[in-house]
Amino acid sequence: MKPLKFEPLLKSTIWGGNKIIAFKHLDIKQEKVGESWEISGVPGNESIVADGEMKGKKLNEVVAELKENFLGAENYKRFGNEFPLLIKFIDANTDLSIQVHPNDEIAKKQGKERGKTEMWYALPSEPDAKLYNGLKMQITPEQYKEMVENDTITDALAQYNVKEDDCFFIPAGRIHAIGTGCFVAEIQQTSDVTYRIYDFKRKDKDGNYRQLHTKEAAECIDYTVLPDYRQNYTPAKNQGVSMVQCPYFTTAVYDLDEPMTLDYSELDSFVILIGLKGEAKITDNEGNEITLQGGESIVVPASTQTLKVEGTLKFLETYV
């Protein structure tokens, strides 16, 4: 079967900006769009197939119908009818909350389905865009609680100026936040578990402070300090450049200006392609054709053997 496109789920937020609609070439009006959920199997927020024979079906219905032919044999054993990755574009006009996510083990102890490990890939952001990722100094759990109470927790965090093509890996347990001016693609486990540590004393539209999860977060935090939290890689044309490999996803970036065939014959997984810039025609081994441009995402079924990409296109490739 051919690769699938899905309808984006656009979410307006108190911190949302104005980049996503233009980036996705959408002819609609919607204010403060902070997120576009591109590929989602999260219950209540499931992606809907945009066209073709499967048009109108939810992503998890597609998985239930096609099983291992869509997910891959090992993935289907591991995840059943649930799609294991969530793909978003995120545009922050103001700082998001300082937060952390539990790992799978802690999440289950806390009554959640699973934890959340994720990564960010920076799209064209504002010149002064910044984010927080990880601790820059050693602190204890007691110091963490004191710093949250004293509004000084950001003093303990590694802060980065963000430029296009930067990549950051955020394993479960790492404190992080997307800052003002950032525009990123996010790849993560299918989970919406977020523990808000600090929210800059902001109030919602009703004048209330948003709920913090200081206690739950304290159970999750990894206090390890690293010298650098960026994923360092060397960009290259017309080949895949590996950026992240972890138990939950493997991600590479491609920057093509000549035809290239991607060989998935030995891969037992679906593949997601996330368009960043440009446009290309993509043809699978059965002759099915689909176009992919910047701002779009497609899911390639696990049964696909090869994809020929023709055009000028920069994209992310991720699979489990």
From TrEMBL:
Zn(2+) binds at H101, E118, H176. Keywords: Isomerase, Metal-binding, Zinc. Residues 243-319 form the Mannose-6-phosphate isomerase cupin domain. Binds 1 zinc ion per subunit. InterPro entries: Carb_Metab_Reg_Kinase/Isom, Man6P_isomerase_Firm_short, MPI_cupin_dom, PMI_typeI_cat, RmlC-like_jellyroll, RmlC_Cupin_sf. Its cofactor is Zn(2+). Residues 5-113 form the Phosphomannose isomerase type I catalytic domain. The active site is at R196. GO terms for biological process: carbohydrate metabolic process. One of its GO terms (molecular function) is mannose-6-phosphate isomerase activity. PANTHER family: FRUCTOKINASE (PTHR42742:SF3), TRANSCRIPTIONAL REPRESSOR MPRA (PTHR42742). This is Phosphohexomutase.
